[in-house]
Structures are given as C-alpha cells and as structure tokens.
Amino acid sequence: MRILFLTNFYLVNGSGGEEQSCRQVVKGLNQRGHKTLVLTAMHDTNNVPVEADGVFRSLYLEMDLVPWRHSITFFTSRKAREKYNLECFERVFKQFEPDIVFIWGMWNLPKSLPALAEARYPDKVVYRFATYWPTLPSQNVFYWRKPGRKWYSWLPKRVLGHIALAMLAKEAQPPTLTFKRAICVSAASRDILVEAGIPVSNARIIHTGLDVNPYLGGGQRQKSRDNRSLNLLYAGRLAPDKGIDTAIKAMRVLVFDEGLQDLRLSLAGSGSTEHKDYLRSLVNQEGLSDHVSFLGWVPPEDMPDLMRKYDVLLLPSIWAEPFARVVLEGMISGLVVVATPTGGTPEVVIDSENGLLFKPNDPKHLAQKIIRLVDDPESRRKLADAGKKTIMEKFTMTKMMDEIESYLLEVTNTSTTENTSRSMPIQSPALLGIQESRPASDAGETYPLISR
Fold first, then answer.
1. Half-sphere exposure of residue 59: CA atoms within 13 angstroms, side-chain side
2. Phi/psi of residue 436, each to 5°?
3. 345, 366, 394 — which closes off a domain?
4. Phi/psi at 184 (nearest 5 deg)?
C-alpha cells in the first residue's frame, strides 16, 4: 500500500504520545513493505517548507502559536494560507498517488483539508482518533473568543475579536465531514465522539500499542530503600485537565497527616507558564518543596531510563483521557499505575488487578491508594507484575500494527471494488469556501511548491 499521513505535528520538540505513536506506525508500515509519506505542519521551521526522508513539512497551522503574530496573519494572509494548504495537499496526492489517506492529528489544522480529502477521495480516507478534535471549534474562533492575556492587549483584542468573529460567521463553512472509515484508540473515546454527534459509531477500536523493547532492556529498576520511601512519578502535560494539583494535595495528606516523610513525587512534563507557576505555588503553600520536584520536559527516548527510577506512576486526570500512552510505559516498566477511571484508562487498568483507580479530584482517595501500596509491598509487587503482563499480552506495538495494517488493507480492497462502479466528481477549493485570489504574503514567508 501507499499511505499518505496527514497530521498536525510530526517529530517536533515536546512531542506527546499521539505524535510518538504516529512515528512508530509510519516506521512499522515501512518495515512491512508499505510506502508512506507524511504531510504535516511547518511547526518549528519558521514557516519554511522542509522535505526530507518522506516527511513534507509544508502546511500552515490554522492559528499561529505566537498570539500577537496570529492577530496579524488572521487579517492579512489567513485565506491565502488555507488555499495554499489545499493546493499543497492536492499536489502531494497527485504525485504520491496513495491508496490510503490516513488522517492522524488535526488539532489546529483547518477542517477544509479533511473535507477536501473526503470530497475527492471518499473511499481512501481513514481517520484515527486519539483526541476529540472534531468536537472543537476552529482555532480561529477559539482564539478570538478568548480574552487577551496581558492588560494592555485585552481591549484591542476584544475590539478586533468582534470584527474577526463577524467575518468568520459570514464565511462559507466546509462541508460536514462523514468520517466514513475511522479508528478510535478506545471504546470510551468512540462513545464520547458519538455522544457529541460525530458519526463514528462503526469505528474500529484499535488500542495504542507500545514498543516494549526499550523498557525491558537497559538495566535493572532502581528499587526504593524501604517500603515507606516510595518514589512517585507523574509524566505528561502540565495542564489543569491533568489533575496534578490533586496529586500535590494528596502528598500533603501522606507527608503530614500520615507521617510518610520519605515519599517523593516528581513531575515530568511541560506546560503553560501560568499553570507551572500555579503548581509551584501550590507546592510551596502545602510545605512540600522537599517532597515534590519539577523535572521539566523529558524526551521520549529518555522515558525508559526515567521510569526505572520510580515505583508508582500517577495519572490523576480529570478529563476523559482517550487512551494514555504513559500508562502503558509505566506498566511495562514495572511501576504500579494509580489512575482515575476517566476515558479509556479503565480499558487497560483494572482496579486491584493490575493497578489502582481512584476518584478524580479526590486527594484523600488517592492518598488511601498510595497508603495501601506502602503498607502491602507484596500486593504492590503483584500489581506491578500483572501490569507488565497486561502490556505484553494486549498492548504491544506488534499487535497494534497487525490490527492497523489489516484494517487499511480491508479499506483498500473495499475502495477498489467500489471504484470500479463509479467515479467521484472533482470539487474546487472555491466549493469549500476558499477564495481563489491570493493576497500578498507575509514578509519573509513564501508559498512553496512541492518539488517532487
């Protein structure tokens, strides 16, 4: 098969679980003899297209991640960028001639891209949902509805926001997406999408899988000095929906109410300056500066070594995690996972069988679960062993690749049969609400052509 991946971020600084899984699937399909090409955003390239090793970094994001810059480009080059994205997609499609368009991450890319893919190549499009992006407004709408961050930007943004939102309301919207063929990373995420009105009730459930080899090799786990000196780890985004404040408040209960002075919690990850400042102030407020440390962002390749230093992995999310990859990393590394039963997490973590579950936003309940691990080291060992066994049996990269490859072949065979009896009309970008004329580009930017 020839597979064209369409995704927002691919192998960029700060890559999360979704981007890591995309890279592994691309690599796995190549190893199985398929041909892949990745079309992604010009993130971290200063909007300069880069083409290398089967990856075309050629798309503009819908919202510039530098706020003041987006305020300018929205009015000066938004339509030109969107038109360019569509032309770029068509050019790549015609030159690569894929059997499948595999739409991966779409946050902050315009929905006109999958709309064009569905309109022209309806039987070739497969979505993979590891987020809930179809339920979100466009980033342009999101940006202009949100107040300015600084006092001096609040009023100008409010005035410009009224103008921008009025402009957006008058513009033609892309056709409704059909999501005819889709993969969801958990049954829970599929149910949430369906409940939100997204027509994916027939989506195939293919759980994320993990390449276990880096976690099984590379040395022995570093065990705690004794049963009462557990090392706890949180790894992921430092964001409000991750419930990290619940873990910090639970540490206060454990250290001061229960007297577990040797417990340590490390927070690995990055996030907004505002939320990091909030978490640091909470740590100081609770008197936990000697018990909670901030590690910053840890590169994916360093995660196996990091995991070996800890006993327990915390996932205190208050949002519906579609399917957290870090849970798999913790379990295969021999950590006991203590998590909230939100989203797809209960599809891998079974309470008291291969991990522990606690109520979201409930520091005391989380503290009780950790006390259980402190008081019963034999139970802790059994949970850790069961967690590792769960990953080896159900959530490996090989299993996920088998299921994805099988599904893509199924789609290819079906579309080949269907295309023998009909052909689809070609739609122009104008039908998707994209103007044909191109305004002047931003200073220092170009609208490149795909060179091959």
1. 31
2. -85, -30
3. 394
4. -115, 145
391/399 Cα distance (integer angstroms): 10
Measured CA to CA in angstroms, residue 312 lies from 9, 211, 220, 375, 387 at distances of: 30, 21, 16, 14, 12
For the segment 184-198, the average pLDDT, to the nearest whole number, is 97
| Tokens found for residue 46 | 């200063």
Is residue 165 domain-resident?
no
9-19 pLDDT, tens digit each: 987 665 677 88
Instruction: Calculate the CA 160 to chain-centre distance.
Output: 31
Size of the chain in residues: 452
Range of the domain at 52: 2-136+172-209+398-432
- Supply the pLDDT for residue 307: 95
